[in-house]
Inverse folding.
């Protein structure tokens, strides 16, 4: 079966928030059938690589009941809260930054979900 | 107390201080509700309110609350709706006094019974608690509070639902608190109505998660919803979320009929994962909720049924939010236009930095962002479009002393006539110097705090 790469934006939606200097990103499969692909491919290690230079460490938690993964991106907010000088001091858009990440999936799956793009 | 159908309707009216002013009115008038929850507090908010109280001893609470309540007080009284709010911030007594004056002026003095919750403010007891062996170690860095003790401006324990329940049981129809947890505002009414006991951890976890879904207002009913965002209709009329709870702890998330927005699995899930840590251990003063046990089901149009929630016993500690004076910051912006907008902005930044250095100013940090290029996603956004129409140069500085930050604010406008061309967008004037009040999260033993919690009826 041939494989291809696809951006997470075609497979998941997401929301992010902050706790101190840590941003969290909840990554939610667009359909229950996509959860396993995300759980297998979007590992803490790969997310750390995606955000290399932007975060100091990544933790991952699984919520299969919500078809979701939760990532903690430590050291992401330039001190966080009131200290941070960043536009996104509260980590509100780390969500879509994660959706830029590419993973490898079967070509058929990619074709089906990319077609859903508007 | 329980409503006839056995369902208690709790409506969210504010998700933060600065949220839509119309929302509480619409929740009260749009259909039946039993409780209106108004959440104003966030980590950053407590610091801001503290700053206001330091300038004016009668300030330090969410003033919006009083003007919003003025609009709905007659209906609160006539419909028997009860309001629970942490609008008190760092000065709940002043908040209650202000509301009392409004109620009296409206001729509702006898009908509005205000429950005032205090005891979260630890400022006067801080040294005594430290001397007693409480280190108030920073939960993120592990450092002891003694590092910054002389700079502390406010210290508030996060209280749970217990004082809210007490106020309701004593007949308050408006409960005003300081730093009660966001989730406690919702859990309190549920415990009051259904009589859940300490030890009823699954139901307490359910009420906590109901509170989490309500605490950010429309963020669970279509606002800020990423999935199919174009399909979310009539956000100009967005209905804030309402929880219809039952005694067994299950509940439905919905909104008033005829309002805009949407309540579906996606809208509720996005809110559930918001500001999430370890999902198996969502710790509040009232218990520990396990988000991996939540079951969601679309049970009708704009109705999501939530069930299956499991919880565990509360911990012996309470979280404390400590605000301490850190220093100063300022942010300046200028807009550079095509052609070569990015190159011009970068050249201006280089000039600015050379001037700051030549002046011998010392900063803890200087941060440059190009809005339109890298401000939100950094290097992940890829290279800038060379033909970009315009870019905003945004430079922020932070220092422990005021003087260098003050001087920085005077170095932005000069770039207009002494820097690269095609620059605009400086009409707002000189950037403001902002005080930084930083947040120091810590833990304290529950038994040291709870005996000092007071509930008064005003």
């Amino acid at each position: 079966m041939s494989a291809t790469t696809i951006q997470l934006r075609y497979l998941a939606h997401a929301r992010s928030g902050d706790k101190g200097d840590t941003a969290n990103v909840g990554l939610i499969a667009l359909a229950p059938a996509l959860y396993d692909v995300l759980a297998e491919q979007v590992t803490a290690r790969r997310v750390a690589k995606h955000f290399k230079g932007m975060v100091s460490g990544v933790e991952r938690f699984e919520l299969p009941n919500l078809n979701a993964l939760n990532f903690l991106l430590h050291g992401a907010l330039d001190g966080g809260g009131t200290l941070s000088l960043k536009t996104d001091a509260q980590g509100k858009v780390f969500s879509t930054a994660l959706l830029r990440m590419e993973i490898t999936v079967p070509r058929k799956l990619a074709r089906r979900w990319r077609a859903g793009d508007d | 107390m329980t409503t006839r159908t056995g369902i208690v309707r709790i409506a969210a009216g504010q998700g933060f201080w600065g949220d839509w002013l119309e929302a509480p009115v619409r929740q009260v008038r749009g259909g039946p509700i039993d409780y209106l929850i108004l959440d104003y507090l966030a980590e950053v908010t407590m610091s801001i309110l503290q700053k206001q109280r330091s300038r004016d001893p009668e300030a330090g609470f969410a003033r919006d609350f009083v003007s919003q309540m003025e609009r709905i007080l007659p209906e609160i009284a006539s419909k028997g709706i009860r309001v629970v709010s942490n609008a008190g911030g760092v000065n709940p007594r002043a908040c209650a006094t202000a509301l009392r004056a409004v109620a009296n002026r409206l001729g509702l003095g006898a009908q509005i019974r205000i429950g005032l919750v205090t005891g979260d403010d630890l400022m006067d007891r801080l040294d005594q608690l430290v001397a007693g062996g409480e280190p108030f170690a920073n939960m993120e860095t592990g450092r002891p509070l003694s590092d910054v003790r002389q700079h502390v401006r406010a210290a508030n324990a996060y209280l749970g639902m217990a004082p809210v329940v007490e106020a309701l049981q004593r007949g308050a129809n408006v409960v005003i608190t300081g730093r009660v947890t966001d989730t406690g505002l919702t859990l309190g009414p549920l415990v009051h109505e259904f009589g859940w006991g300490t030890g009823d951890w699954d139901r307490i976890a359910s009420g906590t998660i109901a509170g989490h879904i309500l605490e950010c207002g429309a963020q669970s009913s279509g606002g800020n919803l990423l999935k199919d965002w174009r399909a979310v209709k009539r956000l100009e009329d967005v209905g804030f979320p309402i929880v219809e709870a039952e005694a067994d702890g299950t509940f439905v998330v919905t909104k008033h009929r005829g309002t805009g927005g949407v309540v579906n699995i996606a809208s509720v899930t996005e809110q559930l994962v918001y500001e999430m840590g370890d999902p198996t251990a969502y710790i509040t003063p009232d218990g520990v909720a396990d988000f991996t046990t939540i079951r969601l089901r679309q049970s009708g149009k704009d109705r999501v049924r939530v069930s299956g929630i499991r919880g565990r016993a509360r911990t012996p500690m309470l979280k404390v939010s400590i605000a301490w004076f850190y220093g100063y910051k300022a942010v300046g912006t200028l807009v550079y236009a095509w052609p070569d907008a990015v190159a011009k902005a970068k050249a201006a930044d280089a000039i600015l930095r050379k001037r700051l250095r030549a002046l011998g100013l010392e900063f803890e940090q200087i941060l440059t962002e190009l809005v339109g290029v890298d401000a939100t996603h950094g290097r992940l956004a890829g290279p800038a479009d060379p033909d970009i129409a315009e870019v905003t140069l945004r430079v922020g500085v932070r220092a422990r002393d005021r003087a260098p930050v003050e001087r920085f604010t005077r170095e932005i406008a000069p770039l207009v006539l002494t820097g690269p061309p095609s620059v605009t967008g400086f009409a707002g004037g000189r950037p403001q110097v902002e005080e930084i009040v930083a947040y120091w999260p810590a833990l304290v033993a529950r038994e040291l705090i709870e005996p000092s919690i007071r509930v008064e009826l005003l």
Chain B touches chain A through 51 residues (CB under 8 Å). The longest strand of chain B covers residues 317-337. Chain B has two domains: 8-120+158-315, 324-438.
